[in-house]
Amino acid sequence: MAENQDPLPVREEDLEDGNELDSEDLLAEMAEGVPEHLSDVAAEEMEDEELLLDDSLSPLEKIFLYVKSDLVFHRVFIAKELPSLIRDVEISEAVEYVLPLMNSLGTDPEDHVREAFAPEVDKIIWFYYSHCPLRENTSDNVQGDNGSINSRPMTPQRPQTPQRPHTPQRPQTPQRPQTPIQQQLQQLPAQPQTPTSHLPYLSPAAFTPLLHALLLDQNTSIAAAAQAAVQSLVERILEEPDVNPKEKELLERETLEGVVLGIGKLDQEKAKREDLEWDADGDDTSVGAVAGGEEEAELGRMTMMTLISSLAPIVGPEKCARLFVPELDKMSDEPVFYVRKEAALAVGSLAGILPLDIITSKLLPIYDHFSTDAIWHVRRSCCLVLATICSRLPEEMKAERAVKGIELFAGDVSRSVRSAAGEIIGELIATFHPNGKVPESLVQHFLSLGPVRESTIGITNVTGSAYNNTGIGQRDPERPVICAYNFPAVVLTLGESRWDDLKETYFSLTRDMQIKVRRSLACSLHEIAKVIGPSKTERDLLSVFRSYLDDMDEVKSGLMEHLADFIECLPLNTRNDYLPSLNDVWDGVNHQWRLRDEIAKQLPALCRLFNSQNVINHILPLTIRAIKDDVASVRETAVSSFPTLFQVVRNDESCYNDMIKRVCEFASDNKFRGRVVFVQICNALVSTDYPKEEFARHFLNDLEKLASDRVINVRIALARLVGELCRMGISFCL
Length: 734
Prior knowledge:
By secondary structure, this protein is mainly α.
């Protein structure tokens, strides 16, 4: 406090009975001296802020005040914390007071509040479902003597909140003025206590309007979160073992029929309301509301189809056939294209779980109808689910439908549909695995995705076969990317015998100018090598491997991640001959520590591919280079490979002793990093099943000397090793 500023005055009443001013009261007095630059802050806002930060608030009071707060971040906070706070509220109060407040959060004008609330709504709903007995929606379900509640308590209304507990005031301190919210709370009448022997009944439909409001939210992230919440609820209802069978049936029926299917029938509810509310004198002031209702009903039907797609694998074939297929059948006459688009995707999801007879009798006619839709969005959705449908069909039917479908979509007038045909061709071919009897037209369509060249006759693929200019053969930079990504699946399906038919397209892709094409091939090089065998790998893929070692870092990274897997696919002689080149590989990535770290991760797998002498002569020197790296992450990765190195050479006494000698050299290294590495290697060994006696014989004396090392980093590493030994219950007698 400045010297020229008078201290705050102390009043006589504050020193009653000769006591000093209480610290809390002193803080209150100091708060009265508000600086002038804050004098324009609204007093009510400051008081509300002080009340909301009051730790004496009960969970129920905190929920009510935060939900009703004018500050957005308060409502965001309570939306996120409500699942935990509500557990501390008496269930009868949670039903009577908190339940109506959920509607305020679900319809809050601020997107941030609804975005925070939507991901938590399933946890809150499950709290009510798991604590309240459920009762079907009947006219008797109104609040009475037994504590039951109305089945749909979701209409926004101001809940009556219990009084805050009275805090005794100190006689020496004048009572501070109450805030408007405090006065409001105390003016509310006290609520009668629900007898503890009677829990309030809850209708399963209590949360349906709230879920519908969130699912229809114009903010797509909120709607997506609400869909995830519905999916989570369905999973818990179907899988929770402790749910009463009768209540489980009620919840299942309401969630699937009331929420999922009900949101697709909003137009029917609207029609019923119009019949009841239509003005007899023909007033047309509600035309705008009717138009808005139609848009909401269309959005509801689209949401229903989206939910059916996501819930199909969860609810099982019986419920899908009984509840979802009839609704999907109605979509053939749906006038709104984006509803049909989602319905086409739902066909694929349902085909993945329904039995063959329903697929052929119900789903395929709907699918064929959508496949020739006038809107390309719908046709594209059909194209994207073609592989899923074909995977469930018998071989002959699968081949016929796959050829028919890919020809239809590859020749579509829409470029988006043609691109989708290219995207799914690899997945479609993979559905014929493992018998490998793929129709030749599908193979040719796939090969046409590769690089193309102009000829005097027309467009020709790299294998020399011409094809029509319907879209698949048109120049598109994304097509080689799709072809490269799907190549491993196609090679796996067709097998080694068809490699010679595929390799020309593959070689052209390896030389593609796009980095993402070459990176995709680098990441999958080992997978193709596994299929075609060692001799063809040496003949055709080793040159690709070497060229990619000199490529861009993105391509090298894809290669380094599976370095050991590819070398394992080489013939044994070639593998041993290539081993000395690993140091050249390290030199090639000397500028990029992340690539060196990837190589260091491959060292344990590389050790298992070679005999003890090759490990000592080639793998160990490379590992030592890694543990001397300037980057700590590379050194730590290399240290973790030593248990495997010791395991590989354990049966060769000469190599084993040589390994111990090379490791112990680090204990007397002139650089402290080397001595730290020695301790870290010992730590890695004791963390595995390395024999205790051998560890004591080979490393304990050097570790004892490092206990008095002049560099603290070494002593810290040693302390960590001792801690690990103590944790494992290992002790040594020095």
